[in-house]
Amino acid sequence: MTDSTKYTPDHASGVNQKAVQAMQDFLEALGLDLTALGMEKTPYRVAEAFGQFFSGLREDPKARWGSLIETESNGLVAVRQIRFYSICEHHLLPFFGTVSIAYCPHEGKIAGFSHFAEVVDVLARRPQLQERFTADICQAVTEGLQADGALVIVQGTHLCLSMRNRQGSDSDIVTQASYGCLAEGTEAGREAWKLLMKGANHD
């Protein structure tokens, strides 16, 4: 196999060169002749992309809540169908779907709706398991908002399932995490589940 030359563009100073070299070695170890295939730039592109995919490792979701809003509200608050894209840590393939969140404010303290999407995005930009991702969001809500209760439901489609197993191509995974007054088994938790799943593809 012809040795390929590592591609180093002029603006590559911010890209992890160790990751670029490792990706080149990995592709060549699988039998790809990068020069013959016109893939000389691929190791750089992959290293740059995964630097973005894993940028959440360098961020604290707590910083995304901003200042909490003081209200008189003591009712359930729900944010549904937040889109996310993440990377499964088992095969480094994408999984994606939606996050729905319900919480009970503590003494009327709430956050602007856009902050929920920001927190989800930070946690999604890490190597993840869907179960941990769900629990991480629930913890971020309960700690960041000092909520009296929280319920998080994640519906995800995993390419490691659909690409490696044709029978699983139409499958998705549903996970939940809950806390406090919305904990699993409570009447409030059951009502919150119904609210978040209303109109979804699952009963």
UniProtKB/TrEMBL annotation:
It holds the Pfam family GTP_cyclohydroI. It catalyses: GTP + H2O = 7,8-dihydroneopterin 3'-triphosphate + formate + H(+). The keyword Zinc applies. It is an enzyme of class 3 (hydrolase). The keyword Cell membrane does not apply. Keywords: GTP-binding, Hydrolase, Metal-binding, Nucleotide-binding, One-carbon metabolism, Zinc. Zn(2+) binds at C88, H91, C160. Belongs to the GTP cyclohydrolase I family. NCBIfam families: PRK09347.1-3. This is GTP cyclohydrolase 1. It comes from Megasphaera hominis.
